[in-house]
Specification:
Its cofactor is Ca(2+). It contains 19 helices and 38 strands. The chain is an alpha+beta fold. It has two domains: 256 residues, Beta-galactosidase, Chain A, domain 5 (Distorted Sandwich); 442 residues, GH92 mannosidase domain (GH92 mannosidase fold). Strands 6-7-8-9-18-13-12-11-16 form a nine-stranded antiparallel beta sheet. It has a six-stranded mixed beta sheet with strand order 19-33-34-38-35-36.
Length: 752
């Protein structure tokens, strides 16, 4: 009897423990992250294993088939040519894919396969049925070799685990230092065997990043039987090789317990630092524990926002939040050493140096989201930008792996720095920051020289003149605000004038922003629907889309149209008239409602403009349509490039019910919440609680808002109110409110 009683107690205890574990697992937010979302069509997201903002993005590379393989992976593929340690996420240009490792069996093949059925090249087909992608973990079965590949990572180390078929013939791995992704090509490389289980080397390449330098150490879980080094497929003797196009084959007698583990640590500085990174971050060989640690790091970051919504909405939301944390990524070592843009090594920096700044995209919402959710990292972002300024003579434009790509237009490090300053961040040199943002606006390039004289940019002299000028005006507004805060009155006056120069491109006779020639005449013929990629007056867009790019002065734009009614009538037409780009439009113009393109960032604020004209219900209608049509939990769940977090940041803000139309005025404009509740966790154990009452597909219109127990009639909320913590109740209904957000005094004020 005693035995039976004890057994019952043990069983009950075990059951309770199991249920407790199950409950914990059930509530984990990482279960809602699906890295496959956005990997089909034009999403270009990274698929693989990483930790938040990690230097390593370890994942599979497919056979490269063009633009939709910018991240190395597209869901339409069924091939894998290797597992590489660096990847971009959501960009429109391909690069990286450094240090590819491919496990193989059978005959040694040195050439990478060119087609799925290429028997003369190394690659393997795979099935999505045998693929698992989670936050911090990736697994796939390589059909050709019957090898199960599993990947995880720390910040600077990629951890591979390959399970071979028992008794596999000639088990080996191919280390490929030749091919990267997209434009990438090797400039120099080296490989050296240090001991029975260790290889080290470097890979310098030229691609989108003009001068990328990377050092690595590869640590194997069992001794090497034989090593062969190849320079352009020619085998070289010895255990050290330096050249341009290097590969290595590493063979083993047999795979111990059928599992081969490989750790690869990266450094932008030196082999010695790569070894230090490995010893510091991943000294052991516990793969399962590393997966658990990666999951915990993601859980911690995702837990900064806890929402109540349907499971599908949770999947879309938390995957979006996950996508906002792939980059900016670490570009330093555990000892804080980093490689500067000037290719000098900076030792033991006082901040975490970062890379991958897609600023034309991210300044709009992804960077403002940082100021709420990642307050501990905002100063790192600014300090990295200021270091780049000192090293290359200007702030970053689109910075990648210690190289300036100069991709896209504007000087959009400016709103990021100014937004941080105006929100109270002071962990950087304020005087240097102001010097840097002002210098950005005083360059003599890309039409900025005309802006400096308070003139229009001539369309017959400067390409993409309207797109550039409208972006410059946003940045100049930001400079004016920081000048005002620093009591630089003359600069404030000057840059305020520059921020209004958008009006020079508005043709009242057609009510569009359009190109103006040097002689002052409008460029003709004029077709507001047409878009010629890189050849017209806009940047990946048309006149219908760019006419609204005045987030710094929406009131001024409304006045150009002649008032609220004319403004909203024209805005209505944007969403109803069919698109006709002509024959040379950009593929980025996607996610269409009429001429509105959710798939391209200059459009992201437009739906919120109705609120400035006292018609917030139209904003609500459109947001619900965008949510339904363009964001899903499927592989094609993004309607355009993820663009390093911006496409997802739009969703995160919008789902919580508000959006930063002006990227640097500290105000967020209300739309319609997509979640039922949200709790934002803030430093100092503060929380901002959002409770949405009566929310449903039909009840999409805000009726009233109560903020910290008091009625709140404004159709915007200030940043300082959110980060102070508190409670906001949003009451929803199925018809537009006749009072909330309608009065002029309750509408957003874009310039303040």
């Amino acid at each position: 009897m005693q035995f039976r009683k004890t057994s019952s107690i043990l069983l009950l205890t075990a059951s309770l423990f199991t249920n407790s574990i199950f409950a914990q697992q059930k509530t984990k937010l990482t279960q809602y992250v699906d890295p496959i979302i956005g990997s089909a069509k034009h999403g270009h997201v990274f698929v693989g294993a990483n930790v938040p903002f990690g230097a390593v993005q370890l994942g599979p590379n497919n056979i490269f088939e063009g633009w939709d393989w910018c991240s190395g992976y597209n869901y339409s593929s069924n091939t894998i040519t290797g597992f590489a340690h660096t990847h971009l996420s959501g960009t429109g240009i391909g690069d990286l894919g450094d240090i590819s490792i491919m496990p193989s069996t059978g005959k040694l093949i040195l050439e990478k396969g060119k087609t799925a059925d290429d028997q003369q090249g190394y690659l393997s087909k795979f099935s999505h049925q045998n693929e698992v992608a989670k936050a911090g973990y990736y697994s796939v079965l390589l059909d050709k070799y019957q090898i199960k590949a599993e990947l995880t990572a720390t910040e600077r180390v990629g951890f591979h685990q390959y399970t071979f078929k028992k008794g596999a013939e000639n088990p080996h791995i191919i280390i490929d230092l030749i091919e990267g992704i997209g434009w990438d090509a090797p400039v120099s490389a080296s490989l050296k065997q240090l001991d029975a289980t260790t290889l080290v080397g470097h890979r310098n390449s030229k691609g989108w990043a003009n001068d990328q330098r990377l050092y690595f150490v590869i640590k194997l879980s069992q001794p090497i039987k034989s090593l062969a080094l190849y320079d352009s497929i020619v085998v070289k003797s010895g255990k050290t090789l330096t050249g341009k196009k290097l590969k290595a084959s590493v063979s083993f007698n047999a795979i111990n317990n059928d599992k081969l583990q490989i750790k690869v640590a990266l450094s932008p500085v030196s082999i010695e630092n790569a070894i230090l990174n490995l010893k510091t971050e991943l000294p052991g060989w516990d793969f399962a524990s590393t997966v658990k640690s990666a999951d915990a790091k993601w859980e911690k970051e995702l837990s900064k926002v806890k929402i109540e919504a349907s499971n599908t909405t949770k999947k879309v939301f938390y995957t979006a939040l996950f996508h906002t944390m792939v980059a900016p990524s670490l570009f330093n070592d555990v000892n804080k050493d980093y490689l500067g843009t000037d290719k000098k090594v900076y030792k033991k920096a006082a901040f975490n140096n970062l890379t991958t700044f897609s600023l034309w995209d991210t300044y709009r919402a992804a960077n403002p989201l940082f100021t709420i959710l990642h307050q501990d990292k905002v100063n790192d972002v600014v300090n990295t930008m200021l270091a780049i300024y000192k090293q290359q003579g200007k702030l970053p434009v689109w910075h990648l792996m210690g190289s300036e790509t100069n991709t896209m237009v504007g000087y959009h490090a400016v709103p990021v720095i100014v937004d941080a300053y105006l929100k109270g961040y002071r962990g950087f040199d304020v005087n240097l920051a102001y010097e840097a943002i002002k210098q950005s606006a005083m360059q003599k390039t890309d039409g900025i020289e005309y802006i400096q004289e308070l003139k229009h940019i001539p369309a017959d002299k400067i390409n993409e003149s309207v797109g550039k000028a409208l972006e410059y005006a946003i940045d100049d507004y930001c400079i004016a605000q920081m000048a005002k805060a620093l009591n630089k009155t003359a600069d404030y006056t000057y840059f305020s004038k520059r921020s209004k120069l958008y009006s020079l491109y508005f043709d009242p006779s057609v009510q569009f922003m359009r190109g103006k020639l040097a002689n002052g005449n409008w460029r003709s013929p004029f077709d507001p629907f047409s878009s010629k990629h890189r050849e017209d007056d806009y940047v990946e867009g048309n006149a219908w889309q760019y006419t609204w790019l005045v987030p710094q002065d929406v009131e001024g734009l409304i006045n150009l149209f002649g008032g609220d009614k004319a403004f909203t009538n024209k805005l209505d037409s944007l969403f109803t008239l069919p698109l006709d780009l002509g024959t040379n439009g950009s593929p980025d113009i996607s996610g269409l409602i009429g001429n509105y393109a959710q798939g391209n960032e200059p459009n992201h604020h437009i739906t919120y403009l109705y609120t400035y004209a006292g018609q917030p219900w139209k904003t609500a209608d459109l947001i619900r349509k965008i949510d339904k049509d363009f964001y899903s939990a499927k592989p094609d769940g993004l309607c355009g490039n993820e663009d390093v977090g911006q496409m997802s940041a739009w969703y995160i803000f919008t789902a919580m019910g508000f959006y930063p139309v002006n990227p640097a005025n500290g105000a967020y404009v209300f739309g319609t919440p997509l979640v039922n509740d949200a709790v934002i966790s803030l430093p100092g154990n503060k929380k901002f609680n959002i409770k949405v009452i009566g929310n449903s597909a039909e009840n999409k219109y805000i009726q009233k808002i109560v903020l910290n127990g008091k009625p709140y009639s404004k159709s915007y909320i200030l940043h300082k109110a959110i980060v102070a913590g508190g409670k906001m109740e949003i009451y929803m209904g199925n018809t537009p409110s006749a009072t909330w957000g309608v009065k002029p005094e309750d509408r957003p004020i874009s310039g303040k």
